[in-house]
């Protein structure tokens, strides 16, 4: 996967994960054009389109569009499953997720994504494991324990599963 | 001073802003606070400030002053700081910024400290924005983590290795030896990462590819286990065990089995099993099945298996899910050359897909349909395609039209069918055909002697109905000119309709004078009129214009015609003529000097042609608009004359005439024009670029202006030319344009 964008029906960006190095200017241009292209699609049209030299897979969930750019040899149908899995993870974490959750907790949305995909590839196929990892990280954050050398904090080296 | 806002309050205030300006104000105020806080604020609050900054960054505002803060946060011992700091690094830093190298050390520290969530953050960041240099620096650290037991960090390390190999391919040597062993792990994340890594290594090095062929049996075993063992809640989607892993294994099998018989054989049975047993009631199953089909088609599979794969695609075409039909059409298109007969079996379904409402599907269906036309199905396929042509979206018309014409050329069962087909395409979508369609059709008709009568009748009737489609008009007028005598006799194969000479002449004149006709079209019409004037009179002695011999295909036919007619118009028949046309010819002969040049049939009309059209045989426009002199300089003058042809109220024709009464000639004359946005302007090629001195023949140029909204007309002209040894450039707006030019 080259990048994933989440945006609202008004074209407002809610999350952008880039797995290829591009300048800020290029990212803005791509985002603008792609958002326009996807928003212009009619509701009954298929979820795939060809854009520049990339394949775009998108799906709308309530008021949010989830849009991924994949390469020629990538499987479009499984990309739909990737998108769906991410939505399920968000849903489980926030409890019936809606766009506002993602706006006000955007950093959490990134943290969840980063436990599911890494470098543009799927890293964990078990929903349970992803959610457990987030939970552990949240706990670690809440504890506000200082993480110093492993000498004093041996107990913190939790095996996550 | 307004106090700094909490994150959520800040977001609320931004969302509450009613205008862009208001939003900008809120953000600027808060960014000032953020900057101040970065400088000398409480370090414990730094992560909150950065989070605010990352939010405005997503809204599109500049956030580069936060880059250094990311570094500080990453170096902090607190987990919340690292979490936000690494996120900031991924969003604000990339390999173009020098600052990015500074986090290498922090990453190295975090990777070696053994705290899993922290290691996770570091690996994630490295694999998202790590530059080649960073990857080289940290390769050994990542290698170590690949070997340690905990799966959480291990799976991330493997995918980080994938990124490293992409950025710095020489690092492959470090990771390659570790892969085979990793395939014996049971953790799905580790397996998935390993397979991804192996794919990356194989794609970069043929040696790696050969090396990894030995893991094919292991891959087959893993996939078989997934497919046959029971339902596992943890990894299943819609009853399919870990479709992500299945798809990835199938992809790797494809890479390893390609061009390698032995490997292909090893996977054959398993592929057949997956192909037949996968439940495709939901998308997950279809995704796996799709990947299976792609693999079967790309390796050395048994013939039966290939047919099975194509049939699966055929079944996909009938699926109610659009997305599945889409991937099926795309894949069949890739296979139509190599497995033509297998794909042919699904032709009826493909043709059905032409009726898709989604344009991206119907486009693929069109391409595929065209690829499936052969000599046995050409008649029925052409019928389907022509039906499609009539209703398809405009951006597909050109491809459809040229596709039909190409197919007709390759597979036409009879010449008459071929002519009918081209005629149908020209009538339905004439404006979308390619330029050589006209030449092709005239060539075809010319060579089919037995069909001359038939062709001319059909073309005549088509032309009588519609003179707007230029390619049709051109072919029809040519044909009428050549075979007009057949037109006056009855033809058994078309409707018996008596056609009178006057009707034919009238139609040709209508074409000649229509403002929809391009200059080339007028050329055809004119030639036809001239040919007919002698043919139809039936004078044997003046069989001056004999039927044209068949020209070599690809030759510029128009030039040949021009040559012939040029030679033959010189001796003018002396019988008194009532045809208005001959008045034209007489006039041509009577005038001296420059009009000896016959009207050119090339697309750029010469001055003589324009004058011809202005002759009295054209009905004068009602209430003529006065001419306007718009420019004068040292004897060079520009005059505009206006015409509003009746019947086309939005159209204005301006003839720009450039005269030269000075002692020196004007050369390299170019006139350009600009009009307001709501008005459309089309410039025809000028009669020339030179006006000789002392009132030599002027340059004329026609502007066509379409002004359907009746917007007040403004015209700006730019002239460049050489005169008296100087290059002149003049730009000016035409004032005093008569109101009648646009109202």
UniProtKB/TrEMBL annotation, chain A:
<comment type="function">
    <text>Subunit of clathrin-associated adaptor protein complex 1 that plays a role in protein sorting in the late-Golgi/trans-Golgi network (TGN) and/or endosomes. The AP complexes mediate both the recruitment of clathrin to membranes and the recognition of sorting signals within the cytosolic tails of transmembrane cargo molecules.</text>
</comment>
<protein>
    <recommendedName>
        <fullName>AP complex subunit sigma</fullName>
    </recommendedName>
</protein>
<dbReference type="GO" id="GO:0035615">
    <property type="term" value="F:clathrin adaptor activity"/>
</dbReference>
<dbReference type="GO" id="GO:0006886">
    <property type="term" value="P:intracellular protein transport"/>
</dbReference>
<comment type="subunit">
    <text>Adaptor protein complex 1 (AP-1) is a heterotetramer composed of two large adaptins (gamma-type subunit AP1G1 and beta-type subunit AP1B1), a medium adaptin (mu-type subunit AP1M1 or AP1M2) and a small adaptin (sigma-type subunit AP1S1 or AP1S2 or AP1S3). Binds to MUC1.</text>
</comment>
<keyword id="KW-0653">Protein transport</keyword>
<keyword id="KW-0813">Transport</keyword>
<dbReference type="InterPro" id="IPR022775">
    <property type="entry name" value="AP_mu_sigma_su"/>
</dbReference>
<dbReference type="GO" id="GO:0005905">
    <property type="term" value="C:clathrin-coated pit"/>
</dbReference>
<keyword id="KW-0968">Cytoplasmic vesicle</keyword>
<comment type="similarity">
    <text>Belongs to the adaptor complexes small subunit family.</text>
</comment>
<feature type="domain" description="AP complex mu/sigma subunit">
    <location>
        <begin position="1"/>
        <end position="140"/>
    </location>
</feature>
<keyword id="KW-0333">Golgi apparatus</keyword>
<dbReference type="Pfam" id="PF01217">
    <property type="entry name" value="Clat_adaptor_s"/>
</dbReference>
<dbReference type="InterPro" id="IPR044733">
    <property type="entry name" value="AP1_sigma"/>
</dbReference>
<dbReference type="GO" id="GO:0030121">
    <property type="term" value="C:AP-1 adaptor complex"/>
</dbReference>
<dbReference type="InterPro" id="IPR016635">
    <property type="entry name" value="AP_complex_ssu"/>
</dbReference>
<keyword id="KW-0472">Membrane</keyword>
<dbReference type="InterPro" id="IPR000804">
    <property type="entry name" value="Clathrin_sm-chain_CS"/>
</dbReference>
<keyword id="KW-0168">Coated pit</keyword>
<dbReference type="InterPro" id="IPR011012">
    <property type="entry name" value="Longin-like_dom_sf"/>
</dbReference>
From TrEMBL, chain B:
<dbReference type="InterPro" id="IPR017107">
    <property type="entry name" value="AP1_complex_gsu"/>
</dbReference>
<dbReference type="GO" id="GO:0016192">
    <property type="term" value="P:vesicle-mediated transport"/>
</dbReference>
<keyword id="KW-0333">Golgi apparatus</keyword>
<dbReference type="Pfam" id="PF01602">
    <property type="entry name" value="Adaptin_N"/>
</dbReference>
<dbReference type="GO" id="GO:0006886">
    <property type="term" value="P:intracellular protein transport"/>
</dbReference>
<dbReference type="InterPro" id="IPR008153">
    <property type="entry name" value="GAE_dom"/>
</dbReference>
<comment type="similarity">
    <text>Belongs to the adaptor complexes large subunit family.</text>
</comment>
<keyword id="KW-0653">Protein transport</keyword>
<dbReference type="InterPro" id="IPR008152">
    <property type="entry name" value="Clathrin_a/b/g-adaptin_app_Ig"/>
</dbReference>
<dbReference type="InterPro" id="IPR016024">
    <property type="entry name" value="ARM-type_fold"/>
</dbReference>
<feature type="domain" description="GAE">
    <location>
        <begin position="623"/>
        <end position="738"/>
    </location>
</feature>
<dbReference type="InterPro" id="IPR050840">
    <property type="entry name" value="Adaptor_Complx_Large_Subunit"/>
</dbReference>
<dbReference type="InterPro" id="IPR002553">
    <property type="entry name" value="Clathrin/coatomer_adapt-like_N"/>
</dbReference>
<dbReference type="InterPro" id="IPR011989">
    <property type="entry name" value="ARM-like"/>
</dbReference>
<dbReference type="Pfam" id="PF02883">
    <property type="entry name" value="Alpha_adaptinC2"/>
</dbReference>
<feature type="region of interest" description="Disordered">
    <location>
        <begin position="551"/>
        <end position="580"/>
    </location>
</feature>
<dbReference type="InterPro" id="IPR013041">
    <property type="entry name" value="Clathrin_app_Ig-like_sf"/>
</dbReference>
<keyword id="KW-0813">Transport</keyword>
<keyword id="KW-0472">Membrane</keyword>
<keyword id="KW-0968">Cytoplasmic vesicle</keyword>
<protein>
    <recommendedName>
        <fullName>AP-1 complex subunit gamma</fullName>
    </recommendedName>
</protein>
<dbReference type="GO" id="GO:0030121">
    <property type="term" value="C:AP-1 adaptor complex"/>
</dbReference>
């Amino acid at each position: 996967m080259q990048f994933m964008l989440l945006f609202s029906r008004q074209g407002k960006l809610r999350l952008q994960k880039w797995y290829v190095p591009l300048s800020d200017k290029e990212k803005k241009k791509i985002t603008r054009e792609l958002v326009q292209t996807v928003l212009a699609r009619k509701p009954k049209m298929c979820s795939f389109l060809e854009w520049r030299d990339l394949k775009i897979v998108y799906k709308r969930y309530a008021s949010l569009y989830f849009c991924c750019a994949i390469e020629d040899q990538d499987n479009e149908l499984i990309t739909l499953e990737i998108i769906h899995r991410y939505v399920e993870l968000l849903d489980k974490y926030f409890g019936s997720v809606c766009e506002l959750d993602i706006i006000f907790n955007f950093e959490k949305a990134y943290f969840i994504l980063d436990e599911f995909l890494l470098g543009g590839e799927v890293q964990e196929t078990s929903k349970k494991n992803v959610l457990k990892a987030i939970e552990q990280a949240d706990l670690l954050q809440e504890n506000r324990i200082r993480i110093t050398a492993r000498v004093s904090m041996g107990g913190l080296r939790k095996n996550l599963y | 001073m307004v106090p700094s806002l909490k994150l959520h309050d800040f977001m609320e205030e931004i969302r509450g802003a009613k205008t862009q300006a208001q939003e900008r104000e809120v953000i600027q105020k808060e960014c000032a606070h953020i900057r101040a806080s970065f400088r000398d604020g409480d370090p414990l609050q730094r992560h909150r400030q950065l989070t605010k900054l990352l939010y405005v960054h997503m809204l599109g505002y500049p956030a580069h002053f936060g880059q250094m803060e990311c570094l500080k946060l990453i170096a902090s011992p607190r987990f919340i700081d690292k979490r936000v700091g690494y996120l900031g690094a991924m969003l604000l830093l990339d390999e173009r910024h020098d600052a990015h190298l500074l986090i290498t050390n922090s990453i190295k520290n975090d990777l070696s400290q053994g705290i899993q969530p922290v290691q996770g953050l570091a690996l994630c960041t490295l694999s998202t924005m790590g530059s080649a240099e960073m990857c080289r620096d940290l390769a050994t650290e990542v290698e170590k983590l690949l070997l340690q037991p905990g799966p959480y960090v291990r799976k991330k390390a493997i995918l980080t290795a994938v990124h490293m190999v992409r950025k710095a391919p020489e690092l492959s040597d470090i990771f390659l030896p570790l892969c085979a062993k990793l395939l014996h792990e049971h953790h799905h994340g580790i397996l998935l990462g390993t397979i991804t890594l192996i794919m990356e290594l194989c794609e970069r090095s043929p040696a790696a590819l050969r090396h990894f062929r030995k893991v094919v049996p292991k891959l087959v075993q893993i996939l078989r286990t997934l497919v046959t063992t029971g339902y596992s809640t943890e990894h299943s989607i819609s009853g399919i065990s870990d479709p992500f892993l299945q798809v990835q294994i199938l992809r790797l099998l494809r890479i390893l089995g390609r061009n390698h018989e032995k490997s292909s054989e090893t996977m054959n049975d398993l592929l057949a099993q997956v192909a037949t047993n996968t439940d495709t009631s939901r998308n997950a199953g279809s995704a796996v099945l799709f990947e299976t089909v792609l693999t079967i088609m790309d390796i050395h599979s048994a013939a039966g298996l290939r047919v099975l794969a194509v049939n699966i695609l055929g079944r996909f075409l009938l699926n109610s899910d659009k997305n599945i039909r889409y991937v099926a059409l795309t894949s069949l298109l890739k296979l139509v050359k190599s497995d033509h007969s297998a794909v042919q079996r699904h032709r009826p379904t493909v043709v059905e897909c032409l009726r898709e409402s989604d344009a991206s599907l119907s486009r693929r269906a069109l391409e595929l349909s065209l690829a499936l036309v052969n000599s046995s199905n050409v008649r029925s396929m052409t019928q389907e395609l022509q039906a499609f042509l009539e209703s398809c979206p405009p951006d597909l018309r050109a491809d459809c039209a040229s596709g039909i014409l190409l197919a007709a050329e390759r597979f036409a069962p009879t010449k008459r069918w071929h002519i009918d087909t081209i005629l149908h395409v020209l009538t339905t979508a004439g404006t979308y055909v390619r330029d050589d369609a006209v030449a092709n059709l005239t060539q075809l008709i010319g060579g089919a002697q037995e069909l001359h009568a038939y062709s001319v009748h059909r073309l005549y009737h088509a032309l009588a109905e519609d003179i707007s489609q230029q390619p049709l008009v051109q072919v029809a007028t040519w044909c009428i000119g050549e075979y007009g005598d057949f037109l006056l006799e009855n033809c058994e194969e078309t409707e018996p309709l008596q056609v009178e000479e006057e009707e034919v002449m009238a139609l040709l004149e209508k074409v000649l004078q229509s403002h929809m006709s391009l200059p080339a079209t007028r050329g055809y019409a004119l030639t036809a009129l001239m040919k007919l004037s002698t043919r139809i009179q039936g004078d044997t002695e003046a069989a001056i214009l004999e039927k044209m011999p068949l020209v070599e295909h690809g030759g510029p036919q128009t030039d040949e015609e021009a040559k012939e007619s040029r030679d033959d118009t010189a001796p003018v028949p002396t019988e008194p003529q009532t045809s208005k046309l001959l008045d034209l010819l007489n006039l041509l002969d009577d005038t001296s000097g420059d009009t000896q040049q016959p009207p050119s049939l090339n697309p750029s009309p010469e001055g003589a042609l324009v004058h011809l059209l202005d002759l009295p045989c054209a009905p004068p426009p009602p209430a003529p608009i006065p001419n306007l002199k718009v420019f004068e300089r040292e004897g060079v003058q520009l005059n505009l004359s206006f015409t509003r042809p009746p019947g086309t109220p939005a159209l204005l024709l301006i003839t720009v005439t450039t005269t030269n009464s000075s002692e020196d000639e004007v050369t390299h004359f170019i006139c350009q024009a600009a009009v307001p946005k709501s008005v459309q302007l089309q410039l025809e090629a000028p009669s020339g670029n030179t006006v000789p001195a002392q009132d030599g023949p002027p340059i004329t140029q026609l502007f066509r202006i379409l002004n359907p909204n009746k917007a007040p007309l403004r015209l700006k002209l730019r002239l460049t030319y050489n005169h008296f040894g100087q290059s002149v450039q003049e730009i000016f707006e035409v004032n005093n344009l008569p109101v009648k030019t646009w109202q």
